Amino acid sequence: MLQNLFLNIDAGTIDWSRAQFALTAIYHWLFVPLTLGLAVIMGIVETKYYRTKDEFWKTAAKFWQKLFGVNFAMGVATGIILEFEFGTNWSNYSWFVGDIFGAPLAVEGIVAFFMESTFVAVMFFGWKKVSPGFHLASTWLTGLGATISAWWILVANAWMQYPVGCEFNPDTMRNEMVSFAEVALSPFAVDKFFHTVISSWIIGAIFCVAVCCWYIMKKRETKLATESMKIGAWVGLIAALLAGATGHKSAQSVAEVQPMKLAAMEALYNGGTDQGLSIVAWVNPLCQPDYESEESAPLKLEMPYALSFMATEDFHGYVPGINDILRGYVKPDGTVEPSVDEKIARGKQAILALKAYREAKAGGADEAALNTHLSMLKDNMKYFGYGYIKNKHDIVPFIPVNFWAFRIMVGLGCLFIVYFALLLLMIYKVPYISVIVRRLLATVGILPETAADTEGITGLPAWHYWAAIVMVPLAYIASESGWLVAEFGRQPWTIQDMLPTWAAVSDLNSSSVALTFFLFLILFTTMLAVEINILLKQIKKGPGSEN
Amino acid sequence: MRKDNFLYKVYDLYADGFRSMRLGKTLWAIILIKIFIIFVILKLFFFPNFLKENAEGDEAGYVATELTDRIAPN
């Protein structure tokens, strides 16, 4: 695919449409997590003001709200482009899912408009107009509005990964919602929501700590920096720990409903019971490994039993590998998961039954004939999407992206836990432990001897503060890696087991999609540059500047 | 309108807020330019409703043909 994209401008519409969607989603996701994360920071800072009535906290709250506002403004409407792409590039998909997808997106639109626009206005304009309590509530409700918006978007995304609460109508060619509760409260959506939102808090916390470190390095706004850093570090540590816990729940959901994604994330070619979690292995990042003939990825270093535990909460649990899924396997509860070849055959039966039904109906066939076709469609609908699969290996996602993106996400997540824990030790000058850590760092040459016995977060060498600033892109890399795992891992499905990308895409000329790809690249890069520029200017101006 | 009227207070919140904005004015300008680019240029010229343009009013029939014709060959 990569070769087609970079070497041949006339590569398939599918590849360009996928690339364009990925580009838009990745850029959109640069704005969203900072909004969700800073919402928590500014909410806590204003709560401090509400409780203490200390003007310092009011100034600090206004400062974080200003940075929130810049990011919020830059992110507004960037997600709407994804909906344009559905209508133009993915029209078959759009029609096929319309009724299911429409409801969560409509609710999201209404919530975003009414809740965010109302409370954002009170938050920015209402300092002298409303009571402190109402203002505080508005600040938290602004963040809650953004979080609820994220809920509905993630409900829509989760439905694509685990389609529930729907029934396919062959007359309208649409999936129709039969249970709003099943769609809105799907366990896959719940796990995805908590993991995604909580990991966004890490980005907000890291951004907050980085800004504070910059001020400390410049020896200005010291009180704002040290006090805000405490909040950032606590939010960061709690969020990083919770992200680990919710990540575990997410992995269990994936193991249950998307075993191929889990197998690709782990480069697990042949599964079984008592499976270890790969810490690292040699998976060539540029080409699909020969999973059919290799027993396992070479140079695999693993944590014994951990994959079985992660997937099933049982150290001896069964986890299918890629070849098991292709061949078919028996689940621990005794049910048989058919081979992909069998699923392909049943998928074709479903598509042919659909065609026969529609032709029979158009030709005025009687009820009995129609019911025969409908019954055949219903019996095989579960594997409808497999009818488009030419080769069983087409359902194996690109393993290297999944394998390495997962490791980057988890590795950085662990780094953030350690970082925030050490930061809190330094901030609170924890007796003994802080001294031990500082001396240890000095012994191995990370801290100079002179810094070993200083206390608190100020007065450390400049590299320490630069390290905090470097954490900002790392946090984004971790977050985007999570999305890569989620979206690359479900390939080739736009809707799991129902519709692969090549059935979902519109019959468009690839050059028109390529053109809009580059238009977006320019538009989003410009917006990102403008945002970074405004943010940096506002940080340099400091808390005293006007909104 | 009386100044303690709820509607006046809402109006005053927005009017006074917009009047005293500084950075906010720049951000609003960016939002409006962005919305113009997205909804007027991109939507009108680059992102037509594919089915509306091609299905001639029978979207279900068009999608059915597309989805049944794309079945994998034996």
Unreliable stretches of chain B: none
Q: What summary fits the major beta sheet of chain B? A: none
Oligomeric description of these chains: heterodimer
Helical percentage of chain B: over 70%
The helix/strand series of chain B, from N terminus to C terminus, equals: HHHH
Order of helices and strands of chain A: HHHHHHEEHHHHEEHHEEHHHHHHEEHH
Query: How large a portion of the residues of chain B is in β-strands, by DSSP E?
Result: under 5%
Structural class of chain B: mainly alpha
Q: Enumerate how many helices of chain A there are, as a single number.
A: 20
Q: In what order do the strands lie side by side in the largest sheet of chain A? A: 1-2
Q: Looking at the structure, what is the overall shape of chain A?
A: globular
Describe what this molecule looks like in 3D.
The complex is a heterodimer of chains A (547) and B (74). Chain A is globular, with a radius of gyration of 26 Å. Chain A has 20 helices and 8 strands. Chain A has 547 residues and is mainly alpha-helical. In chain A, strand 7 (493-495) and strand 8 (499-500) form a beta hairpin. Chain A has helices spanning 2-7, 13-52, 55-75, 80-89, 91-125, 132-161, 180-184, 187-217, 222-257, 259-266, 306-312, 322-327, 340-362, 367-380, 399-427, 433-443, 449-452, 462-488, 501-504, 510-541, and strands at 166-169, 174-177, 277-280, 301-303, 329-330, 336-337, 493-495, 499-500. Chain A folds into 3 domains: 2-258 and 398-488 and 490-540, no CATH class; 262-337, no CATH class; 340-393. Chain B has one domain. Helix content of chain B is 73%, strand content 0%. Chain B is built from 4 helices and no strands. Chain B is elongated.
